[in-house]
Design goal:
By secondary structure, the chain is of the alpha/beta class. It has eight helices and eight strands; from the N terminus they run E-H-E-H-E-E-H-E-H-E-H-E-H-E-H-H.
Length: 241
Amino acid sequence: MGLVDIHCHKLWALDDGCRTPGETLQAARALAALGYTDVAPSPHAQARYPGGDEALVAARLDEARALLAREGVPLRLHRGAENPLDDRYLAGLDQGSRRGLGEGEGFALVELPFGEEVPDLAERLVRLRVRGVRPILAHPERCREFERPGRAAEAVALGAVLQLNLGSLTGRHGMLARDVAGELLDAGLYAIAGTDLHGPLAAADWIDEALSALEASCGPAAVRRLCEENPRHALRGEALR
């Protein structure tokens, strides 16, 4: 069925990801060449970025779909965003702005600060679930909060889904992130893997290396579950495995 990426920054001029339509096109071609068939671009939904404007993101998604169709790139694009798990995002849910994944938006990609502890994480996760959103926690291996023993398992027990950045397995995000990723992977806590692609430079090479590292560590069945089956289920709002 093909690989699915629910975390990347390939829509141009919305955040710190792809800057031009040309870069978006190059990134899309790289993903398609690696076997990806579906992608949910996830611009940073923050006020400091244009990606914080939900209407602009929707328009850019349509523009990107038209660009790929015109250029013959066989990659289906879906709705998505990377939301800071903060009071502003939670308040937006009460006002009808989910910034969720796919058309059903049953799941939403959220992120925590990299360098800060989040003592009220459990409360925030519960508030999301009460509002009918199942959180996918982006790159926990890069967040200080998940260096604490047992914290990742606690989040999963509360209904959160952990999303591995594939590049973490090769040291792309530093050695600490690599080590934490290995621990969470060994514990079976990840349900989804994503690229967190920010640009086309050497994308095909480093993603291919990371996919190979994942297969070497866990086997081909894990690659299918993390990179194909579960992200596809999440796009559809279905239960994960």
